[in-house]
Amino acid sequence: MRVAPEAIEEAAKLLYIRALKILPDDIKQGFARLDAGETDGTAKAILATMIENIGVAERTDNLLCQDTGIPIFNVTIGRNVELDGWALKQGIRRGTERATREHPLRSSVVHPITRKNEHTSCGAHVPVINLDFCEEDRVLRLEMIPKGSGSENGSFLQMLIPADGMAGVKRFVVDAAMKAGGKVCPPTIMGVGVGGTSDLCMHLAKVAATRPLGSRCADEEGAKLEAALSEAVNSLGIGPQGLGGDSTAFAVHVEVAATHITMNPVAVNIQCHSARRASATFTPDGVAIGF
Asked: To the nearest 10°, the Cα dihedral for 217, 223, 228, 232?
């Protein structure tokens, strides 16, 4: 199966706009679940406002949040897929630029030293492109995640050692939730990476934060850690927008990687309540757009 660069470009453009405007169904269901279980009156009022904001944005074809974020594209390539890697990268970049200029969208991307904004949502190493591979035949998946600064600023890394054990991991995650407080626009999805190297651990935390609600860590021990951390974080009383309540997080998600015998890094990356994403799946039958 050959995927044309023009098809990648068009998909990148459409996915960026779609992700900013339409919230995935699993997040909407997450809001309903939190609202049903919330016992604090103020928290319920805030959740109701958030739910109404989602509805207004979708009814009026508007953005869910003014922060268009750092554009991140996760590309998964199956077997027997023919594509030009450089053309893939340039297609994603052109699609991002077109979405920003043609829609138009506010560009949130600037040079880190001069702070100059090219108004394209692009820059050095941006869009961020992550590549992975799967065994499925003639399948190419393109996932777009606009990562806002409010949640991205709630990122933490600690290079623990084996002696710290799981108690150290749990303590670090709970401390991170307390430090983030309301600054990350809760209720959140807290992503936790455990193991690997420092950079892999941070990447896994973001993968975890952007997983669909209801998904479960493939590693059995990681799944147990998810359940324990979800309970612990929601017992902190931070609540929606940090103003108190039971609904601090939709969930805590965990991803794990093998690591060195003398270390055990742990990282936290947080997704705000506007947990936006969109995806396109290319097969010989065409392109399917979803979340």
From this structure: 0
- Kindly list the structural domains of the chain, giving each domain's residue range(s) and its CATH number in brackets, ordered by start: 5-20+64-148+276-290 (3.30.1330), 149-271 (no CATH)
DSSP secondary structure, 192-226, as one string: EEEES-HHHHHHHHHHHHTSPTT---SSHHHHHHH
3-class DSSP assignment, residue 260: coil
**pTM for the structure as a whole:** 0.95
Rounded Cα distance between 90 and 285, Å, is 24
The answer to whether residues 129 and 70 touch, using CB atoms and an 8 Å cutoff, is no
- The span from the CA of 250 to the CA of 258, in Å, is 27
Per-residue tokens: 174: 């709970």
What is the average per-residue pLDDT within 114-132?
Answer: 98
In the predicted model, what is the mean pLDDT of residues 16-33? 97
Exposed (0-12), middle (13-18) or buried (19+): which is 132, by Cβ within 10 Å?
exposed
